[in-house]
Amino acid sequence: MPDTVKKVVLAYSGGLDTSIILKWLQETYRCEVVTFTADLGQGEELAPAREKALLMGVKPENIFIEDLRETFVSDYVFPMFRANTVYEGQYLLGTSIARPLIAKAQIEIARKVGADAVCHGATGKGNDQVRFEIGYYSLEPDIRVIAPWREWNFKSREALLAFAEAHQIPIAKDKRGEAPFSVDANLLHSSSEGKILEDPAVEPPEFVHMRTMAPEAAPDRPFVFTMDFEKGDPVAIDGEALSPAVLLTSLNKFGHDNGVGRLDLVENRFVGMKSRGVYETPGGTILLAAHRGIESITLDRGAMHLKDALMPQYAELIYNGMWFTPEREMLQAAIDHSQAKVSGRVRVKLYKGNVSIIGRTSPLSLYDQDLVTFEEGKVAYDHRDAAGFIKLNALRLQVSARRDRRAESSAQR
User: Fold this and answer.
1) SS3 for 132-158, per residue?
2) Which SS3 state, helix, strand or coil, does residue 57 take?
3) What is the pLDDT averaged over residues 286-300?
4) What's 205's DSSP letter?
5) Of 35, 93, 337, 396, which has the most beta carbons under 10 Å away?
6) What is the pLDDT of residue 180?
7) Mean pLDDT lowest among 83-97, 160-174, 258-272
8) Which has more confidence, 284 or 164?
9) Which comes out higher in pLDDT, residue 379 or 302?
């Protein structure tokens, strides 16, 4: 018999799996269920989630649907991109960065309605269970967490479908059997995993891709636009100021139309296994290139190189669900400080899956053409100074070489 739960807040998409979880919670825990559906720009109509929850006996006042798109981009996506964050050299963390916001919103609703538990629909093999639950415990240390995939006795997809039919839970025709792959989507990306994608030796079929056209089918002429940055964040496209979510939506459209942002990746999950995923991050791919472009003329070399050294640790923290941790906040403070003068404009060219930065300007630029020109510049730079610079940097190597030569001579005697 499970522990007594009075009221639980369920992260609810309105899909088959979370609808089954909703009914399972009602039957197993005999508790009041509160549903929370977050609009993170997944591109789905969310009104049906409310209707389905009502049909399953959830009280109207216990149904929460929140538009979190602007918060998602401004408070999670943009801070992450200030660090040029990439996990294992390629993945832009589209799924990972959404989980702390969902967890935070769930906890806030739990406090509001007086719930003593929260529930998610993540499986027992994936990363999301870790991300959700570490988020919950970080914000509400004594909250009860229910993870149905680790608790219930369903052994197969057929058993889940049988449960759904027995309780009159609507089943879409394409759900009657094994799904070809699973999908997670938000305003930053879409990810597809499982089933037909599990063999990493086999190229993903074209129909898997939902956010981008094939690069081969993209226009035969480049698409060029400008992006303005203020303190490390994008604020305008072609001179037009846009809110964070609207700006990312525009970049997604540009990326889609030019075949930008596809990734076929085998990654290392936090729980210990490797998994293959097909990711599409059109706007994020453009943003990463543009941000590095503006940093290239505004960020000091030492700060840039330190950021690049810290970034893998920062990326791993986000991937592993450690957003609400002291170490992530420490790194974020350093990253944000580095962005104080990262402002200006970049010109971006998209062409058949490629992103090129073809221009950079900033009133805070560190680029000095008089210093770097091959012609004699106005700024005093004495070429002879380089000789001492080189000798001092070579000194330790000279000492080592002389030692090795002495040792070699002694060995030959």
Assistant:
1) HHHHHHHHCCCCEEECHHHHCCCCCHH
2) coil
3) 98
4) P
5) 35
6) 73
7) 160-174
8) 284
9) 302
Each residue's pLDDT tens digit, 348-367? 999 999 999 999 999 999 99
Write the CB contacts of 92 (distance below 8 Å, at least 6 apart in sequence). 85, 86, 188, 189, 263, 279, 281, 284, 285, 288
Dihedral angle sign, alpha carbons of residues 392, 397, 400, 402: negative
Nearest-Å Rg of the Cα atoms of the chain is 26
Distance (Å, rounded) from C-alpha 381 to C-alpha 372?
10
Handedness of CA 311, 315, 316, 317 (dihedral sign): positive
Average pLDDT, the chain: 94
181 closest CA partner among 195, 163, 164: 195
DSSP string, 382-408: -TTHHHHHHHHHHHHHHHHHHHHHHHH
Top pLDDT among 368 and 61 is at 61
According to CATH, the superfamily of the domain at 7-69+97-178 is HUPs (3.40.50.620)
On whether the CB atoms of residues 37 and 102 are closer than 8 A, the answer is: no
8 Å CB contact between 236 and 243: no
pLDDT at 175: 54
Instruction: Parse the chain into domains and list their residue ranges.
Output: 7-69+97-178, 183-299+341-361, 371-408
- pTM, whole model, 2 decimals? 0.94
Tell me if residue 230 falls in helix, strand or coil: strand
Q: Is the pLDDT of residue 302 over 70?
A: yes
Contact 180, 27 (CB under 8 A): no
3-state secondary structure at position 125: coil
Residues with active-site annotation: 17, 99, 128, 182
Say which residues have a Cβ less than 8 Å from residue 221's Cβ, sequence separation at least 6.
Answer: 351
Q: Bridge partners of 354? A: 351
DSSP code of residue 203:
P
Cα atoms in the 13 Å half-sphere on the side-chain side of 5: 27
Q: In 59-125, which ranges are E strands?
A: 63-67, 117-119
The CA distances from residue 385 to 375, 382, 396, 398, in Å, are: 17, 6, 19, 20
Q: Which CATH class is domain 183-299+341-361?
A: alpha beta
The owner of tokens 């609810």 is: 12
